[in-house]
Amino acid sequence: MISSVTIGLLGLLTLSIPVGIVLFLLGFGIDAFFSPFPLIKGLGNLVWSTSNNATLIAIPFFVLLGEILVRSGIATRTYAALDRWVSWLPGGLVHANVATSTMFSAISGSSVATAATVATVAMPQAEKLGYDPKLFSGAIAAGGTLGIMIPPSINLIVYGFLTQSSIPQLFLAGLIPGLLLAFGFMVVTILICMARPELGGVRRVFPIAEMIRALVQLIPIIILFSAIIGTIYKGWATPTEAAAVGVAGAVLIAAAFGGVSIQMISESVVGTIKITSMIMLVVIGASFLNFTLASAGLGAELKAILDGLGLSPLMTILVIVCIYIVLGFFIETLSLMVVTIPIIVPLVAELGYNVIWFGILMIVLIEMALISPPVGLNLYVVQGARKSGKMSEVMLGTIPFVIAMLIMVAALIAFPQIALFLPESLQ
Amino acid sequence: MLIGVLLLVCVVFILAEIVIRQLGASLGGTDEISGYVMAIVTSWGMGFALLELSHVRIDFLRGRVNALGRSLFDLFSMFVLSSTITLIAVRSWPVVERSLVNSSRANTPLETPLALVQLPWFAGWLWFAIVAWFTLYAAIRLVLRGEFEQSEAAIGTFGEENAEIHT
């Protein structure tokens, strides 16, 4: 059954049938060939119960939050402020790219939104100050991927929903790996610029007074992050309710900068509905596939395969990592996550691994997929904002950051506590 | 647009609930209502996302053929989508029908009559199916007339440079 599903999955995806529909078709196939009783009778109920869901409404809220902030002009202010603080490092403004991405990730649940926002703000500076376009744009594409790791994260909500694990715990688990990755990106930049100083542009030192004044610009973002994450951990609000708080906060911030208008809000809402529906078609398809796989006895078959393979749990995880790296070249990220969860996560759980930990490992792998050609969305987003130069420059520029991500993957496998420390200690 | 307003009202409602809960009371039922809003927003948003070419497709192979080949990929995938969505809509009707026949109410303090929220939800899927078949019909006519560019604008994929997919 697993081999038929995998072949069917890849075959149908290559035919360029929409991903959500492919998942439904596979579900129908399993029902017809592998299930002892007709599962399709449950289709209507399943679609209803998946979409009638108070947890998933956090997705449109977080998307809306991002849409409003992107239009509010806050990114420009944040970028300028962080520039004052990090531009003395070798690599100068490249660090501002990573730092702004990190900050923005902490309020946005999306990597593409993060990359798009930072790219729009940062690109004009690169040419003015003579930075190497490869390193500069690579840092934005890679920094943007932090959006799905540092909470809040739309991808972690989807993962939590499909694997029935705790979303607050997933958010906590993503925090340290996310910050470590950001730190790793900065270390990579410093190393490159120490070896080849001509790539790094001008290092600039600002007077202390100016640095402190710049901090004021960061306050709205810090307050918003604390409001979203704080209300969850104080137990005042569920992730869904925290997302609603975030939307209100984003409107207030945009209003404070004078950017709120009926037109701006309605554009944000229309964009949100479009993206939410796209995500939900895939999520509903995946939960139907989940349901048919479970009913047709996936668990027993997985156990048989594992026993048959005779691989150690560690070897199996390494094989899984390789599968994700290869698939990441060809499949768009959310789809990659959603189509693999029904098969891979039960297997990982069967091996005795922690599902929260695996969620974080999967996110790092998905982040790599975001910047691996030919189907790396962040590459296209950054290139789109550059308006000149070759696409291949962005691709080459991300390579050092991909190495940092690979180290992170190895570190997570060797020391699961990197992800599990926070959720376990706060339990 | 109405759906967007629904979403915004839901935000305000949840905020009110959080504040009131801190004061020791509760509006009750925010979770339940958010769920209904989510179901209706997504079912009605699907058709819109289809017209905006937002549903993700992998164009690994599709991107490697000429205009005629691409439009054949598009027509085929549009046909499969339309059939699948029709099947979903048909299978969703019994859910609504049962609620109507039994006058079912939600097993919650609000005792929402389920048909009241399931009817608009079902109508969203039905609308998605209708939109899909009409788009397919229009695209077939364009392809038969050899207007590949226009058919691609109707049922092709977004250039990835313009991708707005938030993941």
Describe the model:
- The complex is a heterodimer of chains A (427) and B (167).
- Chain A is 78% helix and 0% strand.
- Chain A is an all-alpha fold and 427 residues long.
- The two termini of chain A are 39 Å apart.
- Chain A has helices at 2-14, 19-33, 43-51, 58-72, 74-86, 93-105, 111-129, 133-144, 154-163, 167-195, 208-233, 239-256, 262-295, 298-309, 313-330, 333-350, 355-370, 377-386, 391-414, 417-425.
- In chain A, α5 packs across α11 (208-233) and α6 packs antiparallel against α10 (167-195).
- Chain A is globular.
- With 167 residues, chain B is mainly alpha-helical.
- Chain B is 71% helix and 0% strand.
- In chain B, α2 (30-51) packs parallel to α4, α3 (67-102) runs antiparallel to α4 and α3 packs parallel to α5.
- The radius of gyration of chain B is 20 Å and the shape is elongated.
- Mean pLDDT of chain B is 83; it is low at 159-167.
- At the A-B interface, α2, α3, α4, α7 and α12 of A face α1, α2, α3 and α4 of B.
Summarize, please.
The complex is a heterodimer of chains A (427) and B (167). With 427 residues, chain A is mainly α.
Strand content of chain B: under 5%
Total number of beta strands of chain A: 0
- The span between the termini of chain B is 24 Å
- Oligomer, anyone? heterodimer
Give helix and strand order of chain B, one letter per element, not per position: HHHHH
Jot down its keywords.
heterodimer, A: 427 residues, mainly alpha, 20 helices, B: 167 residues, elongated, disordered C terminus
Indicate the topology.
The complex is a heterodimer of chains A (427) and B (167).
Chain A: H1 2-14, H2 19-33, H3 43-51, H4 58-72, H5 74-86, H6 93-105, H7 111-129, H8 133-144, H9 154-163, H10 167-195, H11 208-233, H12 239-256, H13 262-295, H14 298-309, H15 313-330, H16 333-350, H17 355-370, H18 377-386, H19 391-414, H20 417-425
Chain B: H1 2-22, H2 30-51, H3 67-102, H4 114-144, H5 148-155
Helix pairs in contact in B: 1-2, 2-4, 3-4, 3-5, 4-5
